[in-house]
Amino acid sequence: MKREQCFIAGEWVDNGAWIAVDNPATGAIIGRVPAMGREEARRAIAAAAAAMPAWAARPAGERAAILQRAAALMLERADALAALLTQEQGKPLAEARGEIVYAASFLQWFGEEAKRAYGDVIPAPTADKRIMVLKQPVGVVAAITPWNFPAAMITRKLAPALAAGCGMVLKPSELTPFTALAIAEIADEAGVPKGLFNVVTGDAAEIGGELTGNPLVRKISFTGSTAVGRLLMEQASRSIKKLSLELGGNAPFIVFDDADLDAAVAGAIQSKYRNAGQTCVCANRFYVQAGIYDAFVGKMAAAVARLRVGEGTSPGVDIGPLIDERAVAKVQRHIDDAVAKGAQVVTGGSPAPDGPRFFAPTVLRDVRPGMQVLEEETFGPLAPLVKFDEEGEAIALANDSEFGLAAYFYARDIGRIWRVAEGIESGIVGINTGIISTEVAPFGGVKQSGLGREGSRYGLDDYLELKYLCLSLA
Ligand code: ADP
């Protein structure tokens, strides 16, 4: 399953130059992938463009059947795929398996949605006209994906693209390319035509330059940092490509004094510590109402102290390694800055002894506005707890960010639930839950968290163009 070649124009190929891939838990090299560049990206784009018309012309039901076969293959191989994913990404095996099932769900879902790309007939303004709207595939799509969800971030783009009738070139993260290449193998086996889906690994800036510059590419779908998203948007502006951008977050998690505290702690743990805090919808800052602040701090610290740190393959592990040592240094920097400005470590607070990329799950109390940890996405196992007094203050604090991907809050009062849900500036709001990701719901952000929605019936629209037909009967 561990392919060490790229998949271009339906062939497994390399160019003799290599990038080493390591296991973040141990630092051991687990394999290598080709270091490709502009030339190979161009070839992959041409292959996708050549394969696309025949694919788009096939009945939606045929495209659906192939996507669903790919979903079934992923599920059949879930254990092996999960092991590969944990080896290159680090997350606990149970989470990796959960991600494979989640990734397969997009193939299944968009297989279903492929058949529902309905058009419209619009009542015309004059008697001699008829107005219709068709939906057609947007064209060749270039996808660039991150390392934190090496499987799901790919199928969330690939499935709607193929369902709509598009071809695709994918550049996965150089840190986690093997899961992407395994997905290419599955797509090939499931019957995706040669050339329609290509995976190119290598120099990000060079491949990205070709993907955003090549006129055959009509859309860029990117998940990653806001800085790279901004750069891709700028590059794509020259040829006015469509963009779906799923960028950084800084999710607030608010606990009101009428919340069920135990449920709030359980939701906080799920939202904050999944994937060791390395998801773009992870709670990044906690606002807890004054009346229950101390009680929440105590329960949260106790629950966090029970989390087990270790290699993702060890049974019972909750927190695996961070992706690299830079990530560890960032968590430490946020703690040091907060402590220097008056916060206190309640549990954790330092790297874990398991290896250079492990960090102990941490809770900070007495965190206040102005500390870095509230302003930047930590992307690690650190929960900063801020005290607030009033509902309006909590909404204002939550909205005091250039990001707006996910937000969470716990409350029981129904009026408050509506006021806060409507007042929060984010694309996703979890109310009395810390888990919001599912293929059936639209995932995406407002403000600098991005453009477009992935998953759900809306997710297909991002890969379709509307064509308006005006027919004169005269
Ligand atoms: P993260 O901080 O999550 O690693 P990045 O935005 O750096 O997020 O990476 C997300 C994806 O973007 C990866 O596949 C990475 O290789 C790619 N990437 C990084 N820099 C560029 C670039 N200049 N052009 C195109 N892709 C890039």
UniProtKB/TrEMBL annotation:
<dbReference type="InterPro" id="IPR016160">
    <property type="entry name" value="Ald_DH_CS_CYS"/>
</dbReference>
<feature type="active site">
    <location>
        <position position="246"/>
    </location>
</feature>
<dbReference type="GO" id="GO:0009450">
    <property type="term" value="P:gamma-aminobutyric acid catabolic process"/>
</dbReference>
<dbReference type="GO" id="GO:0005829">
    <property type="term" value="C:cytosol"/>
</dbReference>
<dbReference type="InterPro" id="IPR050740">
    <property type="entry name" value="Aldehyde_DH_Superfamily"/>
</dbReference>
<dbReference type="Pfam" id="PF00171">
    <property type="entry name" value="Aldedh"/>
</dbReference>
<dbReference type="InterPro" id="IPR015590">
    <property type="entry name" value="Aldehyde_DH_dom"/>
</dbReference>
<protein>
    <submittedName>
        <fullName>Succinic semialdehyde dehydrogenase</fullName>
        <ecNumber>1.2.1.24</ecNumber>
    </submittedName>
</protein>
<dbReference type="InterPro" id="IPR016161">
    <property type="entry name" value="Ald_DH/histidinol_DH"/>
</dbReference>
<comment type="similarity">
    <text>Belongs to the aldehyde dehydrogenase family.</text>
</comment>
<keyword id="KW-0558">Oxidation</keyword>
<dbReference type="InterPro" id="IPR016162">
    <property type="entry name" value="Ald_DH_N"/>
</dbReference>
<dbReference type="GO" id="GO:0004777">
    <property type="term" value="F:succinate-semialdehyde dehydrogenase (NAD+) activity"/>
</dbReference>
<dbReference type="InterPro" id="IPR029510">
    <property type="entry name" value="Ald_DH_CS_GLU"/>
</dbReference>
<keyword id="KW-0560">Oxidoreductase</keyword>
<feature type="domain" description="Aldehyde dehydrogenase">
    <location>
        <begin position="13"/>
        <end position="468"/>
    </location>
</feature>
<dbReference type="InterPro" id="IPR016163">
    <property type="entry name" value="Ald_DH_C"/>
</dbReference>
<dbReference type="InterPro" id="IPR010102">
    <property type="entry name" value="Succ_semiAld_DH"/>
</dbReference>
